[in-house]
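Reviewer 2 asked us to include a model.

Predict the structure of this chain.
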Amino acid sequence: MANLEIAPGEIIYGEAGSMAYMSGNVSMEAKMKGGFVKGLKRKLTGESFFMTHFEAQGGTGLVGFAGNVPGKIMAMDLRGGKEWVLQKDSFLCAEDNVDLDIAFQRRLGATFFGGEGLILQKCQGDGTMFMHAAGDLVEFNLQPGQAMKVSTAHCVGWESSIDYDIQGVGGIKTALFGGEGLFVTSLRGPGRVVLQSLTMAKLANALVPFMPKSSSGGGALINLGR
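Predicted model (structure tokens):
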């Protein structure tokens, strides 16, 4: 969880449903942050049309935010002109002076085979942003020209200075039997990159054997794993 203290006059906003708790002196209000057009853009990236704003009154307030899957949360300081590109649904919350917008893939290969789709999220502004993803998170700081190949969909976010594209895994045998699919994500520095250990697709596949199954009598058979 992201446990935040906000002083009177400070505003934090987050995606709808991300608030886990707040102190009694904190008020919340759903707002169309950035206007109608920005709201439509957020819908394209999987966020809600309205964002929930939190403000403390009469003293320091507390607000807790939580992600929608088992995983980790990471804070990113965007001050100094930093700009981050995030995969869909990675944004959790941010200070009010951080702008959440959309970013388009710059290359067709990344659009069709990268696992992230055409539209991504972009965060910039004079404040702190919090991202969340499934599993564990690890950060790399790539030097100019330094490259890293990542299994598709394991990228959570990267600085806008990173060159992002898709490459084939190699020969036919590797593609068919390597277990990594046909393509990998290529990241080239300079810039910081955040990766996740677990993707939503892998999490869903791991849960399939434990989901309720229909029995011949029309009821449900639940595997409790005992």
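Confidence is low (pLDDT under 50) at residues 108-114, 173-177. The chain has one domain: 2-208. We have added this to the supplementary material.
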